[in-house]
């Protein structure tokens, strides 16, 4: 059970503590932030409202801890990460419980997220030893006009302090995807869970339980910190703090504001998408329907890589819409504890936003394949057919179980709509013609294009990146490790040219 057993130390009465200098603390502010259960719409948990002064102390401790950690052998860093991964998987049940109550994630998917997170941490440890264990030697005579009298030794060194800000929908997995690479690379890590973000207050308590697993693994004091609080009070203070050397953020358009304020700090950002699904006439229509339902409606559509718009050739549209509707009718709608397919969206404001998109489509003549139904934060799955470009749902990201279908008469029309979006995270193409698939993929302005499958983030070692307003930089384990390091060179100058004679 959350907050009990090995996790008892992280709870102070009814308020979860924050983590600094290797211990769990109550904030001197005397204030807390409520975590509202999306299903009951009642306060489920409370977390500390940290102050700016407490953030300053965290940064001071992280700076000291990082210097010692950078001198820790790679194998030792990896050993501790493996230990944390094992503890995380051992205690998957209470962490999954938090995910169910905080973000209404179906119970089975909540457990899967925690196990996947443990696997990610272990893989990161192994990959880091390989990547960071290699350096590079350059010799000067490869450049015109030079003799071989200079040897350049280059290696990857840590950036310093990494600020990690995960989103509400994967507060454990997308936290460790930042924590693991930062630590194996020799950085200190400050985690700011998604409390008081623009979308929600959810995700913090699961993240706090996850951080405790790293504490139990025995990482040095001050190396890992986790501060909670209102974004309005410590959000900008954290992202603009002079002690931060790197920011890894996953979320919405808050990231654009962060990027404008961060200055010279390296950024890694994934900021959402309007992932298009282009369906050609020769596609396997049963496969298409299955992937539209899976891609568009799993976790109630609250995924950056969810299918957000279907662009389908007119000649096959009726058949696919019929197949999708048949599958939607079989989805189980209800509370996450019952492992329902469709669960409540994360907040009332999110549900209101989704409803606004739906009402706009209704006023402008979209075809409702199901009756629109909502109870509190719970919205039943809805397919909107005959959507036109003048409707908001054609362009805006609903982050909910509502999916628009736009009928097209040519592949070029579909590509044009995809590329006209200000987003460019992922997309997918369904066709039996691999040549067409490659040509369309190359034409789509998206960070990743899936062929004959719905968009997806992962496996976690695959590159994951967005174009345009969907993000900056690339994620995936290898890319994240490289991003959280910098190259340092040492040049050896010889008194005279030296050549190896073999």
UniProtKB/TrEMBL annotation:
It catalyses: D-glyceraldehyde 3-phosphate + NADP(+) + H2O = (2R)-3-phosphoglycerate + NADPH + 2 H(+). GO terms for cellular component: cytoplasm. Residues 24-489 form the Aldehyde dehydrogenase domain. Its EC number is 1.2.1.9. It is found in: Cytoplasm. Its main location: cytoplasm. SUPFAM superfamilies: ALDH-like. One of its GO terms (molecular function) is glyceraldehyde-3-phosphate dehydrogenase (NADP+) (non-phosphorylating) activity. Keywords: Cytoplasm, NADP, Oxidoreductase. Transmembrane segments: none annotated. Signal peptide: none annotated. The active site is at residue 270. Important as a means of generating NADPH for biosynthetic reactions. PANTHER family: ALDEHYDE DEHYDROGENASE. Belongs to the aldehyde dehydrogenase family. This is NADP-dependent glyceraldehyde-3-phosphate dehydrogenase. It comes from Brachypodium distachyon (Purple false brome). The gene is LOC100834031.
